[in-house]
Amino acid sequence: MKRNLLIIAGIILLAGLTLYGNQSETGKHEEPVDRKPQAGFAAPLFTLEGMDGKTYALADQTKPVVINFWASWCGPCRLEAPILTELHEKYGNEIEIWGINLTVNDQFEKAQAFAEHYGFQFPVPLDKEGSVANQYQVMAIPSTFFLDRHQNVVKVATGLHSKEEIQETIEQLIAIP
């Protein structure tokens, strides 16, 4: 009888450990894996105040949006800024270009002087706390996210890119219904 009780107790113990182990594994798989915005996935929505004092909400956009993260001290950003200005002049009626300043790591006055120097006529939302850069997992600047009119990521471009590369992607965005 004692032997049977020991066997039953052992089976119950093993079953309990197995169930506990499975719950722990299930919990691990339910945690978010990689939330970095990438092609084919919905872009994280956000609302930021712009350099002009207006509020910019991604959810309100009905045109494709090019989101460029930059800072005034970034050398490659200085090279890319005239490209964005030129492409905004060319495609501004068909797309939105937002130059999100990483104000959390920049000085507002320097960012403002940068935007004026390069003639930014597009919105410059200010990421004062770095929350949007965190949502988009921006690790290097410039970083550019190309979104279709439904706020889905079509392409992510990290680092400096040529006018031709950016223009080609913009034309692809415009063609997406």
Structural commentary:
With 177 residues, this protein is an alpha+beta fold. It has two domains: 1-31; 47-175, Glutaredoxin, CATH 3.40.30.10. The protein has five helices and six strands; from the N terminus they run H-E-E-E-H-E-H-H-E-E-H. It has helices at 2-30, 75-91, 108-117, 131-135, 163-175; strands spanning 47-49, 55-57, 65-70, 96-101, 143-147, 153-158. The strands form two sheets. Strands 4-3-5-6 form a four-stranded mixed beta sheet, covered by helices on one side. The model is unreliable at 13-34 (pLDDT under 50).
The CATH superfamily title of the largest domain: Glutaredoxin
Rg (CA only): 24 Å
CATH topology of the largest domain: Glutaredoxin
The whole-number mean of residue pLDDT values reads 86
Instruction: Write down the oligomeric state.
Output: single chain
* Poorly predicted parts: 13-34
Strand order of the largest sheet: 4-3-5-6
If classified by CATH, what would the architecture of the largest domain be?
A: 3-Layer(aba) Sandwich
Summed up, the helix count is: 5
The biggest beta sheet is recorded as: 4 strands, mixed
Distance linking N and C termini: 75 Å
Label this structure with key terms:
Glutaredoxin; alpha+beta; 177 residues; 6 strands; two-stranded antiparallel sheet; four-stranded mixed β-sheet
Concise overview:
This protein has five helices and six strands.
List the helices and strands and how they pair.
Elements: H1 2-30, E1 47-49, E2 55-57, E3 65-70, H2 75-91, E4 96-101, H3 108-117, H4 131-135, E5 143-147, E6 153-158, H5 163-175
Parallel strand pairs: 3-4
Antiparallel strand pairs: 1-2, 3-5, 5-6
Helix pairs in contact: 2-5
